[in-house]
């Protein structure tokens, strides 16, 4: 499998919901497949886990606490493309679900 050019776009996706993240990856993969651009693949990054400790009562029972956690799931898609295809505009106009944060880096 040969890479046609050295132009690369890296899309980094982050979300608190894993299902939203997977559906947005499938949507981007369909957009890439329809244009016929070579895609390197999807790589998953480590999940960030933030744990917050909160007192249950502000005045008494200082030993009674609740723990809450927020997980942030992250993925990276690398896309190799030709100069003839304007893949950046297709990615910007793609309608990703709310709750998915994405960054597009061109290198």
List the defining traits of the structure above.
107 residues, alpha+beta, 4-stranded antiparallel β-sheet, 2 helices, ribosomal protein, 30S ribosomal protein S10, plastid, ribonucleoprotein
Detailed description of the structure:
The chain is built from 2 helices and 4 strands. The protein is an alpha+beta fold and 107 residues long. It has a domain at 8-45 and 74-106: Alpha-Beta Plaits (2-Layer Sandwich). A 4-stranded antiparallel beta sheet has the order 2-3-1-4, covered by helices on one side. The longest helix is centred in the first third of the chain and has 18 residues, at 18-35. It is elongated, with a radius of gyration of 19 Å. It comes from Thalassiosira oceanica (Marine diatom). Keywords: Chloroplast, Plastid, Ribonucleoprotein, Ribosomal protein. This is 30S ribosomal protein S10.
In short:
By secondary structure, this protein is an alpha+beta fold. It contains two helices and four strands, in the order E-H-E-E-H-E.
Largest sheet: 4 strands, antiparallel
Oligomer: single chain
Name the strands of the widest sheet in spatial order: 2-3-1-4
Low-confidence stretches: none
CATH hierarchy: architecture of the domain at 8-45 and 74-106: 2-Layer Sandwich
- The number of strands is 4
Protein name: 30S ribosomal protein S10
Keywords: Chloroplast, Plastid, Ribonucleoprotein, Ribosomal protein
Organism: Thalassiosira oceanica
């Amino acid at each position: 499998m040969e890479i046609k050019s050295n132009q690369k776009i890296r899309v980094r996706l982050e979300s608190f919901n894993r299902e939203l993240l997977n559906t947005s990856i499938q949507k981007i993969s369909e957009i890439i497949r329809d244009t016929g651009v070579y895609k390197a693949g999807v790589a998953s990054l480590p999940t960030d886990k933030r744990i917050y400790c909160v007192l249950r009562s502000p005045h008494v029972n200082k030993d009674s606490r609740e723990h809450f956690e927020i997980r942030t799931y992250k993925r990276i898609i690398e896309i190799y493309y030709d100069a003839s295809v304007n893949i950046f505009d297709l990615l910007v106009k793609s309608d990703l679900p709310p709750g998915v944060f994405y960054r597009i880096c061109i290198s």
